[in-house]
Amino acid sequence: PAHKFIKLNTGAQIPTVGLGTWKSAPGAVELAVEHALKFGYRHIDTAAAYGNETEVGIGIKASGIPRSEIFLTTKLDNPDHLNAAEALEKSLKNLGTDYLDLWLMHWPAPMTPGSQGPVFDVDWLDTWKTMEKLFKAHPDKLKAIGVSNFSVEFLKRLLASAEVIPAVNQIELHPSCPQQDIVDFCNAKGIAVTAYSPLGSDNSPLLKNEVVKKIAAKHGVQPANILISLQANRPGVSVLPKSVTNSRIESNFSVIDLTEEEIKELNDIDKTLHFRACHPSWTGHGSLGFPDCK
Ligand code: A2P
């Protein structure tokens, strides 16, 4: 199919469809990762905060697919902003790998271990500078660095002093949370975008939406394929459907080409159905300026 890879600003290629593992529990995620890789996936996304890096690593080993053929992403957890070097080593150890294809700052929201929300005396821009240093010092361990959950405002502040342009900004994207301003800004700056929760996460009303179902029936595919393809059809966007169900892992791997008219119809869903899968607890904090998807 079309949409196989997106070129990063490092020159590396990120496969357009990857397996998401947010909420994929240990016990299930090993099998999901193994199945996905055996089926043909070559892009796996996890995070220290998901509490499943060890099991993702077990799934990768069990698949028998060489590490060099897999694009593996993990993320720096919020309470580790002041401990980035140690956190990197821990993620590598948990995953049972020598290197990451991509290491993301999970949120521009430093926390202290045990804190309930962000702490404002730690600046995520300093964390980015630490990540840059680690990237430059350890090209054997880090192939690319990037960010996640960054709004345009945050990206502007980062780019104003960054020495390394983030390779990727990973954000929530689905018809109810299109965040077109962020995608446009990233495209203009050479930052690839990766879509998480493309289906709208658990129990998503999008899978039951009449427009989605109609377009799916027309193409003879599942509603999920339409939502995944909608993201994969956007320039510079890769997409991470999450599943721990083998049959869904398989069917989610099919991306189809949507017509401009179908894309417009899907984008119009936003006018009636607003929700966000991943409510940032600090939304509304003026100085952080998070975009609210209503
Ligand atoms: P499960 O993991 O039990 O298979 P998102 O990718 O937006 O985060 O959505 C993940 C949610 O969607 C999970 O609850 C997952 O369930 C479910 N899901 C994944 N693929 C499909 C599919 N093809 N059809 C219906 N639901 C799906």
TrEMBL record:
Q: Where is this site: Lowers pKa of active site Tyr?
A: K75
* Residue numbers binding substrate: H106
What Gene Ontology molecular-function terms does this entry list?
Answer: oxidoreductase activity, acting on the CH-OH group of donors, NAD or NADP as acceptor
Keyword terms, alphabetized: NADP, Oxidoreductase
Q: Which SUPFAM superfamilies match?
A: NAD(P)-linked oxidoreductase
What are the residue boundaries of the NADP-dependent oxidoreductase domain, all occurrences included?
18-270
Location of the active site: Y50 (proton donor)
Q: Which domain of life is it from?
A: Eukaryota
Pfam family name, one? Aldo_ket_red
- Family membership, please give it: Belongs to the aldo/keto reductase family.
Q: What PANTHER family does this protein map onto? A: 2,5-DIKETO-D-GLUCONIC ACID REDUCTASE (PTHR43827), NADP-DEPENDENT OXIDOREDUCTASE DOMAIN-CONTAINING PROTEIN (PTHR43827:SF3)
Protein name per Swiss-Prot or TrEMBL? Glycerol 2-dehydrogenase (NADP(+))
The organism is Hypsizygus marmoreus (White beech mushroom)
Q: What is the lineage of its organism?
A: Eukaryota, Fungi, Dikarya, Basidiomycota, Agaricomycotina
**What is the gene called?**
GCY1_0
